[in-house]
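User: We ran a pulldown and think these components assemble together. Before we commit to crystallization trials, I'd like a predicted model of the whole complex to look at. Sequences follow.
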Amino acid sequence: MDIFKMDLLRIATSGSVDDGKSTLIGRLLYETKQIPEDKLQAIESASFKRGLDFLDLSLLTDGLIAERAQGITIDVAHIYFHTPERKFIIADTPGHVEYTRNMVTGASTAQASIILIDARKGILEQTKRHLFIAHLLQLSRVIVAVNKMDLVDYEEEVFRNIQSEFERMIERIGFQGKVHFLPMSALKGEGVTQFLGYQKWFEGPSLLDLLTELPLMEEEDKEESFRFQVQHVIRPKSSTHPDFRGFAGSLHTGETRVGQRISNARSGQSSTIKSMEKWGKAINSSKKDLALTLILEDEIDLRRGDILLHENEVASTRKQVKAELCWLNGASHQAGSTYILQQGTARTKCKIKSINKSIDLLNLEWKAGGELESNSISEIELQLASPLHMDPYSSVNKLGAFILIHPQSMLTLAVGFPKG
Amino acid sequence: MSPNFPRELENEAIYIFREAVEQFKHPVLLFSGGKDSIALVQLAIRAFYPAKVPFPLMHIDTGHNFPEALAFRDEMVQKFGLDLIVEKVEDTIQEQGIIEEKGPYASRNALQSITLLDAIEKHKFDACFGGARRDEEKARAKERIFSVRDDFGQWSPEQQRPELFNMLNGSIQTGENVRVFPISNWTEWDVWNYIKEEEIALPSLYFAHEREVFHRDGMIWPASPYIQMSKGEETHRQIVRFRTVGDMTCTAAVASDARSMEDVMGEIWAAKISERGARIDDQRSEAAMEERKLNGYF
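Assistant: Here's a predicted model for the assembly, 718 residues in total across the polymer chains.
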């Protein structure tokens, strides 16, 4: 067995209040035997204290004091579990209207998203919001888990109706990813890791089987252009390494190798990759690596934030950017404000020139204009102080995405997805 | 079957180190002597190799150390040419005339936060690297990689900055500082696997050895001059090892004869008690960690 190979799948979960998301995650952990005995005992005693006659698995993730008092989830929580084949990181996000930012945040690092629906309630405004965010982030996989099937007597018709309505929504939004539908009861354990025979009309697979079989991002990788962004220049100036000049950074997409001609998108200056290494260990070729160091043949001007392309590629360095923008902060945009734009490790000042249109999540329609305020999603035009190379955003090329930072409060205000 | 170490996690941690060094003026690595902070040191060395680690380590010393842990610390610092700052809780107690906790459960854990906050101010640190992991505890599961603290070192869960994709926003206002957690997404098992695959040295405390201990509340406590024993409690010699290494007054041992790395990992894999279960300080209340975090504990 290759010790350097272990699959890691990042998943985002989102749902509405009370649709049983915490119970579902608790169930996944419980049935994959990830819960240590002391935690299990704590849950048993807490369940008993509340007068419940079953194990309240939601207590595993409903963490903070404030949340327990209100019985809600207030922020993105990260949960870890594994099967023999794969490790999983779940970004669990709450489903309140005001917390779209958490959903976007959770989904931004995920390869797949689980959208939870209460079988009794069907598709809610939240559900539309979740799918739209998956669409915005171009997630390639969405799992629609219709939960609480036990409360509708596991009736196939209830499930199928929700599925058809969801499919109509997919069409309206134009979501391109693959969608899996799954009826389940997290409380009873039906459909999570196994089927107990309540839903003979459903063939499976269970949620865990589905998650274990999902292709990883790398495996889905299409032909992508080489994009390397400089993060940190290593210059020891020591007696053992007097002239070492390594460009530590991230190979976001594409592949490269020693001897490859590259150019700096900002300046157009070219050079050749002389060698590549990870902490002194030489490598000849690489793809998708957050921490790679390049050593170049020539001393070209290269600094933090610069993006390298293969030499024959044309940079799309620009000051005018059209983008979809999701506003994440309680403080709304004021016309004329200057912000700091961060794209990966690059930063520049920027202004919002216009708001073209905004989405109305109730009926999934774009309307002209609109305000940039908490949880809004709009298409905008940006003016940058210094030109940046910006590729259109895609789930493969996440380097396209950027955040906006308030220049005084320093808070992260918004996330943007450049268009072509 | 036990999973292997995903290399993606090492890359992520190194990316976080580099990002913090670029975004902050005076970072420091909080070194506790435990395996997580030892792994952190290894990652810091790698992140900047062949350059020197561009920030010091800082040990907040409660004075209740395992002698083995101190010896290990000094040897490690020497070997890798690192800078070490030691700030003593004892000094805080003297300077501020603090009355210490008394009784069999007395611990300097709460005082550590005061010494830490004073040290941050004194050295003007704007970022502190810590070895906390999100899988340790429910409050940690909700914490960001760049976790902003206010003037009083307080964590505010409702006002955290969203962290999208790999983008970390470390810009702060005067008085604020940031806790940086490079191994946020590692599990306990990942840390062990990494230490094993990279053959990283650990203090001998992590392996089975004979020592003077006593039993209290179903846990094995190391006998030491810093712990007041109650009537009826008696020490005896036992073969034990520690799953976490902190202050002697708040770290419980487990009965074990695992003397090699393989044996220890075999035991952990089979273990049924979560890691922090052996930390006496967390057993005080169900929400102990969240309460301490709000008060500036890292």
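Chain B has a mean pLDDT of 87. That may be worth checking against your pulldown data before setting up trials.

User: Thanks, that helps.
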